[in-house]
Known about the structure:
With 103 residues, the chain is of the alpha+beta class.
Amino acid sequence: MANKKDKIIGLDLDLIDQDSLLHIAEKVEKEVKDFIEKQLPLKTNYDVIIYLENDGKRINFSIDIVLNGEFAGIIDYDAVIGDAINVARKILERELRKYKKVS
């Protein structure tokens, strides 16, 4: 039985193949990196890893963001990470809506 969230999104999982997931992951990664670069000084080191999987029942998504910078007392890195995760979620939702089931 599908839960409430599954019914709201209503994705056609058969249309979301590995190439589609790769395209979505690349788009999310680029947008998150662009966001981070706008928020932090140039010499800040960061890494963004996106994982997407279609297990046939749902799309599994995880994101790993690591920031290393010299301005820990000045910049709230945790807030930047939180905001970057929200950016990733919005992009992911926008991209997945393209695969919504047609009634």
